[in-house]
Structures
1.
Amino acid sequence: MYHKLEVKNLSAWFNEKQVLKDVSISFPSNNVTAIIGPSGCGKTTFIRCLNRMHELVPGARVQGKVLLDGRDVYRDMDAMEVRRKVGMVFQKPNPFPNMSIFENVVAGLKLLGVRDKKVLSERVETKLKEVGLWEEVKDDLRKSGAMLSGGQQQRLCIARALAVDPEVLLMDEPTSSLDPASTAKIESLIRELKEKTTIVIITHNVQQAARISDFTGFLYLGSLVEFGETKKIFESPKNPLTERYVTGRFG
Amino acid sequence: MDSRKAKELLVRAVTTFVSLSVAIPLLWIVADVVIKGLPAINFEFFTSLPAPFGETGGGVANAVLGTLVINAMSSLIGIPLGVLTGIYQSEYSGDKRIYSLIRTSIDSLAGVPSIILGLFAFTIIVMRVGHYTALAAAFALALIMIPPVSKATEEGMRSVPIEIREAAIALGLPKWVITLKVVFSIAKGSVITGSLLSFARISGETAPLLFTSLFSYYWPAGINEPMASLQVLIYNYAMSGFGEWVTKAWGASLLLLLIVLMINTLVRAVSKNKGGY
């Protein structure tokens, strides 16, 4: 199995406080890998290290390696290249308020100078179809993204992230602010998206990890306690801490 | 009535009375200017040059044009400088010392009386070129525009939430693109509001013009020449003691008041539907 993204001995700090301790994980291509763990375990910091968003915070520091197709994202690539190849979807939908639905989807292309109307229109249609939003918004493409419901906004944000053809898609609790129906739509979307990209998703919802992921990593107090196929993590965890967490006895 | 209710009533009565009475001067001014200025307004008022002292008729067309030209030049200098300063302060001033140096300078500039800015423009421009010039007026008024424009820009951009910035960063966009095409674009409403308000503000400034563009009874002859303006026309004519000119001064005041009120209405319209944050 090919590993698109490999994390080797990753540690991260905010000033003096260490929030990640020597984490190593290999993410298999075209699979969904879930990172689970209680609040404050370092999940968000971990995922933000993968596309170099962690370093944006003053006082933040990283040690170790993150390899994308064998290239170290910290030493062999510049941050913008990394972020174009490793897309991200956030906890709260964050469409650009000054842009229409159309412009939001192709923001990454348009702002980098792609002017060709045909290319942009095609991209908008393909990506909105991929996230299942096309039928709902095809007549309102010129309207503001802010008029959509929370779940639609989040799918718009996924379309925006996909529109630059990322090789890896990071999702930071993408359904935590959504209602159950919108959550279900996004979960089925995630299962489809893995055909084309490698997905890393953070969730504090253990059932969600069980439903959508192929692999699961359990992070606790900044350390990776256990990593493996989701089925095994949930049915026969090796570590008693993992077992207690996935059965809901703490969290 | 118990004393608690009496106090409540007293506070309500006093604040109501005082706030209504502070509205009186404004209404009074507007009414006075309209009553005394309206008779001066006719077609000739907007299209003709001033008539010589002692003669009737004529207009203030050169002063209207002059004020617009001076304001336009001031905006061309002041708004870009203010906007760029605001962008720097909000997005690029990593060093706290540089930030506070600029912040303090701008706050101080905002506090300098306009007559001193006029004198400053007089010494460094008018005295050098040897004659009064509208360019010096534009320079002095631009200095008045910079602080409000830069503050409106900075505050508008700072209020763009981190979530929106992160969305742009995560797309792999360079910082300058995020700054100009995402953050600045969202803050545009605030920038336009600040620029319009500063435009309204300089439309009333008179002291700096007395040292710089002074006045002319003719059409503007060039931007490096003395130039008529409504403000200085009001000042000259009101003090002339000649009835025809005093009426013209009232007419010009009415015009100036209308310009400023129009801009304020425009500002309300802009800030109402600026969207974003």
2.
Amino acid sequence: MVNVEIQGKVYPPTAPYLVGREKVREFARAVLSEAPLHHDPEAARAAGYPDVVAPPTFAIVVQDSTLQQLLADEEAAVDFSRVVHGDQRFTYTRPIVAGDELTGVMTVTSVKQLGGNSMVTSSTEISDASGAHVVTAISTLVVRAEEAAA
Amino acid sequence: MIAPVFEQLSVGDVVLTRELHFSRDTLVRYAGASGDFNTIHYRDDVAQSVGLPGVIAHGMLTMGAAASPVAEWISSAGVVSDYQVRFTRMVPVDGADGADVTVTATVGAIDTDARTARIDLKVVFAEQTVLGKSQLVVTFA
């Protein structure tokens, strides 16, 4: 069971993540997207962006480093082998583009216990190098109950 | 594909249907691109040891790939400003046959003042919906 005392806990900012053009292209290929904005810097510039635009779920790469903080937190007591992804949301102020240097700060917004399962909802605010908000990534992780001893 | 014009969208319009094919290669590629190397996405023995039928797709691969046809459709006419899903069913990916997933995107709501359209995604594998409340908000220029 996840420790309900971590509700409200705020974790330290993650090390800055520099978004690379080839990483954006690699991620776009991995999610089967051929949209020119993800691949072609000229197409991106023509649309008013400084460089290629990341697909909408790319923020998971930055959010993941905050979720790793949660999984490594002994106080939280999250058993990774029992974690299932329950839901996910990204709310953008602007799209992520190559060249962005992004930092995430995660808050545990809710911990619920239900029938031996735990549901942990966290909200990660991702900002650029100027400190301006780019995207908020919200996840609910379901930590399944341990089976009764055989 | 013809880029959308905000003024021409109506609630209920089916804007696209797309078949996506996931193979084990797709999962390995997504693992590398995303950094999610959970072994249940490439080893049947590990997946089965935790009670799964075998290797399953990353939920985030399904979420990400389901949005790609929409990103291709909107092109530079707008941006995705919000995207949410619930992971309701797993997508097992057979070593030989892979998995075929169908995405249908429908206009769910329009806000003329904000120039936004909510696009609802129906994502189906083996005749069952695998993502719940799968909604994208596109903000038009």
